[in-house]
Amino acid sequence: MALAEEPHAHSHDIRQEMRELEDKGEIKIQRVVGPYEEVEVAHGIKKKIPTTHLYQHKSCGQCTNLPGVPASSMYVYEQLGIDYLNDMEHTSCTAWNYHASATNNLVSLAAAAVRNWHRVYETGYNLDVHCVTSFGNYQEMRHLLVTKKEIRDEVRKIMHAIGRELVIPEEVVHNSEVMYVLRDQIAAKAKYRFDGLRAVDHIGCHFYKIMNDDVIGGAKPIVVRELGKTLGFDVQDYSKWFHCCGFGFRHILVNREFTRSALRVKLQAIQREVDPDVILVNCTGCGTTIDKNQWIMKAVGENYSYPALFHSQIAALSLGADPYKVAGINFHATPVEPVLKKVGIL
Amino acid sequence: MAIDFGDLKVYERMTQDPRFEDAYQGCLSCGTCESLCPAGQFYDYNPREVVEATGRADEAELRNWLENKIWYCAQCCSCKFRCPRGNSAADLVMILRDIAVEKGWAKEALEKYTRILKTILTVGNQLSPDMIAPDFFPDWGPRVAEMSKHKKEWRAELGIPGLMPIDRSWAVPAHVIKELLDIWKLSGAMDRVEATNPFLVELAWDNIEEALEDEKQAAEASHT
């Protein structure tokens, strides 16, 4: 039996409890705007993935380290004629800081989430979260706000003080879930395919390990590998797929020897078992860790050069995006050029 | 660093946290969490110990964790995902980190973290492109050094509105940063910053006052 089907403390359809709270006047639900596709997540629960009016909730790590990732997302939507909003009036979710330092407490974390959700609500767009940690954090904050009255009451007070309301989105959706739903549309318009390239995927821990009942694929998320396969990649399995990349939140910043050591365990398995052309990712932290920490492995006599490509980048590149001016491969520490040359993009 | 715990009852304080009910639900001592914990591979760290110590309400062991071990956890939540009882060592660690920060016992652990905290409190983002400099990330190799040199023009080439500044991840306006600061003040998070980095609090409020004034002047200028 797959893990997603086993009884678990965090497995329940939060939406029903949200509707009950809304009926009591405790919260306001932001419902999905416009067309959507329903996809089963776990226990027969259906999640609505909006396919238009997408609020680009950007990632601080992506915009800093690999800005071609958000640029690629917006390019894909433009090519497919999908309405999106690149709004500046949201902050970082502050979950990176929470997991790294605990200097922001739980109430501030929940209030920062609701402030950003309320901003999305007032624009009339659907939440489309670029960062996996923001996504996992928003799912956890939604769970805590719905199940813990004391947090709900404190956050409501803060929202009123700053002139906002306690709004909770019906759906917390990650950008890679949207791309998964759009995969056939992307493939139909593709100018390039990745046939002949071998890949492995690494899914960010916070995509499915914080809350496991509301992501496509459940216990073993399928969004990136299915998008990759649709675009021609030969996506292979490897034994350490579950292993954390080593990002560690505080570790990538102030204890990088741990980050390098944990990543090495993963890279060794990938090289031994598959030796792919690329590693496909959907997570800000993992993409950064995998991209930036391969060069230094020469120090222990090991050579790795597996470009880390995000779901949005492969989608954009297949649609004909400029590798530098859209996909931003010049920001990658591990060269992407050799792989793009193999499929004629460069 | 030896901590003076005074009369703090760590277990009792943990049980008062809203996360506790989900995070501890009885331990089978099966070792699943231990077997897949990345921190446990490289540090003297075992997530099963903190779950078992919680189950025993073991004050001495919980205090031992508070001294240092809590900072080894990578917060990947692999333990939470795979625990057959639904426990979360990662969340128990967060509850303990919460106590450490609140009590001012995290100064050493957060010593190198000041710049990050300053970035959040002044620009509303966790990171900024100007932080990715070769002297701070020499282990990221020659392409990152090259990127650092060209960050302004390469970001401009992407042509994405709001992604041009290098002092923040995107162009978060001052009035939005002010809302985040108000949240931190009203939630008590600012008091915790005061406990670890007191000068940052004053810096954050001075900075936002100036930024709001600049924003106001820019808005007035655009109307004239």
User: What portion of residues of chain A belong to β-strands?
Assistant: 5-15%
Q: Helix/strand-derived class of chain A? A: alpha/beta
In the predicted model, the low-confidence regions of chain B spanning at least 5 consecutive residues are: none
Shape of chain A: globular
What is the radius of gyration of chain B computed over CA atoms, rounded to a whole number of angstroms? 22 Å
Total strands of chain B: the figure is: 0
What is the averaged pLDDT score of chain B? Answer: 95
> SS-based structural class of chain B?
mainly alpha
Global Rg of chain A: 20 Å
Assembly classification: heterodimer
The fold-level CATH name of the largest domain in chain A is Glutathione S-transferase Yfyf (Class Pi), Chain A, domain 2
What top-tier CATH class of the largest domain in chain A fits best? Mainly Alpha
Total helices of chain B: the number is 13
SSE ordering of chain B: HHHHHHHHHHHHH
Helix content of chain B: 55-70%
Order of helices and strands of chain A: HEEEEHHEHHEHHEHHEHHEHHEHEHH
Largest sheet of chain A: 4 strands, parallel
Could you explain how this protein is built, in words?
The complex is a heterodimer of chains A (346) and B (224). In chain A, the strands form four sheets. A four-stranded parallel β-sheet of chain A has the order 9-8-10-11, sandwiched between helices. In chain A, strands 5-4-6 form a three-stranded parallel β-sheet, with helices on both faces. Chain A has a two-stranded parallel ribbon with strand order 1-7. Chain A starts with 13 loop residues before the first helix and ends with a helix. The relative contact order of chain A is 0.15. Chain A is built from 16 helices and eleven strands. Chain A folds into two domains: 15-175, Up-down Bundle (Glutathione S-transferase Yfyf (Class Pi), Chain A, domain 2); 192-342, Rossmann fold (3-Layer(aba) Sandwich), CATH 3.40.50.11810. Chain A is α/β, with parallel strands linked by helices and 346 residues long. In chain A, helix 6 crosses helix 7 (149-161) and helix 8 packs across helix 11 (223-230). In chain A, helix 14 links the parallel strand 10 and strand 11. Chain B has helices at residues 10-15, 20-23, 32-35, 38-42, 47-56, 59-67, 78-82, 89-102, 114-123, 142-158, 174-187, 189-196, 198-223. By secondary structure, chain B is an all-alpha fold. At the A-B interface, helix 2, helix 3, helix 4, helix 5 and helix 7 of A face helix 4, helix 7, helix 8, helix 9 and helix 10 of B.
